[in-house]
Amino acid sequence: MEAYFMLISVLSISSISSSQECHRELLENVDFPGTDIKFVYSPDAEHCQHFCTQHPSCLFFTYVRADWTRDIRHFYCYLKSTPSGQPKVQTPLLGVTSGYSLKPCGPDPQPCLSRVYPNVDFPGADYRVLFTADYEECQRVCTEDPFCQFFTFVNDVFTPEKIRYKCHLKFSWPLPRTLNVNRKTGLVSGFSHSTKLTQYSDTACSVKLFPNTDIPGSNIESQPAGTPEHCLALCSAHPRCTYFSYESKALTCHLKSNPNELVMKAKEGVTSGIATHFCQQNTDWAKTALDGVNFQGSDMLFELVDDEIICQKTCSIDHNCQFYTYVNENFEDSDIWRHCYLKRVTTMPAPPKVTKLANVVSGFTKRNCI
Predict the structure, then answer these.
(1) pLDDT greater than 60 at residue 276
(2) Measured distance CA(283)–CA(226) in Å, rounded
(3) With contact defined as beta carbons under 8 Å apart, do 220 and 255 qualify?
(4) Residue 61 near residue 23 (C-beta atoms within 8 A)
């Protein structure tokens, strides 16, 4: 669990969590130098601010705009933090915009990202390509497709001609995902009961799980997961996943893609299943506490509480918390007994890269704007 390191890091975060004020304003041509956590790509400062808000430890940011001229770092969103919760210094700098996390501002619904970006490409993350008459239709298709999170459209003057009017639909994870899951005595983990999971229909899913069964090969991605049902939810949220195999000992969900055949073989400790489509999943897995399981990392802060039930309720009440880990008195380090670690990850549409490219238009699903 790396308990000592986690204790030190979250102590600094928890000490400022109640003192931060809501600052929505963006500061153009102002830099918050240093104290970087990491950088991600964003097409504008507003997207960068939302990303900072959803990141577990980001408190403020500096965004490098498209008009930046000192080097080729365009569309860089630098996520930042300090123990005080405030930038150490502010300096004037042309071509950047800075601002603060919106975590203290109240509930954080999935943001409406209705703006489109001419001459900007979102390379990578494609799962489907089709031809549309214009970028408006491409965005409509993205909005109607439950898997699509963002898109890039190639317009009618792009070179080479043969890929004009192409609409690239792209995927990023909309579900909260635990970045690392392992077994550890004295820990209890679970999800916020307030977490909203996407539902496509009022019709209940017909779930097909195969205990002690593996589906070898065809792996596209592996994700940590607490239960086979959690693995099913991950597979069903991914546009390319046709079925999965879940290793209970390793707490690992292997997403697989093979639309041509389904070949199973007996294997103890593995549960396999088939993705569900356009139906309402049973979400009981997200309300089940997992004893002896650690959702490692992604800490926002901790609170001292008496048991895992109160920890779960604390996470569910906190609008920023998606999942939690509670340390009970069976844990090896008594210094962190009764610590309830509140956690979150980003679930907003997030392109893996943003670049300049003439004669294309990129944008996001408008599903959250409706």
Answers:
(1) yes
(2) 13
(3) yes
(4) no
pLDDT digits (tens, 9 = 90+) for 97-128: 999 999 999 877 789 999 999 999 999 999 99
With CA atoms as reference, report the closest residue to 233 among 200, 259, 203.
200
- Is residue 55 within 8 A of residue 102, CB to CB? The reply is no
DSSP of 314-339: HHHHSTT--EEEEE-TTSS-GGGTTE
CA 118 – CA 157 distance, rounded (Å)? 13
Q: Which helix (H) or strand (E) holds 357?
A: strand 355-364
Alpha-carbon dihedral 143, 146, 149, 150, rounded to 10 degrees: -40
- Give the count of beta carbons closer than 10 Å to the beta carbon of residue 162: 7
pLDDT single digits (tens) 154-191: 999 999 999 999 999 999 999 999 999 999 999 999 99
Backbone angles phi, psi at 29, to 5 degrees: 60, 35
The span from the CA of 252 to the CA of 181, in Å, is 8
Answer whether 177's CB lies under 8 Å from 226's CB.
no
Residue 235: in which H helix or E strand, if any?
Answer: helix 228-237
CA distance 269 to 277: 26
Q: At 168, phi and psi to the nearest 5? A: -100, 115
- In what order do the strands lie in the sheet containing 181-191? 290-295, 181-191, 323-327, 339-343, 299-304
Beta-sheet strands, E only, within 132-200: 150-154, 166-170, 181-191
